[in-house]
Amino acid sequence: MSATWSFRTSWCRGWAxxxxxxxxxxxxxxxxxxxxxRFLEQAVLFRQSYDYNNETDTxxx
Length: 61
Hints:
- The protein is an all-alpha fold.
- It has 2 helices and no strands.
- The protein has one domain (2-56).
- Helix content is 89%, strand content 0%.
- The chain is elongated, with a radius of gyration of 21 Å.
- It starts with a helix and ends in a 5-residue tail after the last helix.
């Protein structure tokens, strides 16, 4: 029982580490691209203006 449990937990831990590494690779590649940075910047600005609109109940033109 304990051998199966330790194998399972080590396998899950290894899988989580692999997933984290893949995520870090994807994020690293994403941040390397200026086009993606511009897109993220626009997304943040849009989100801020959207939140502002919802708070004040006004439509910004």
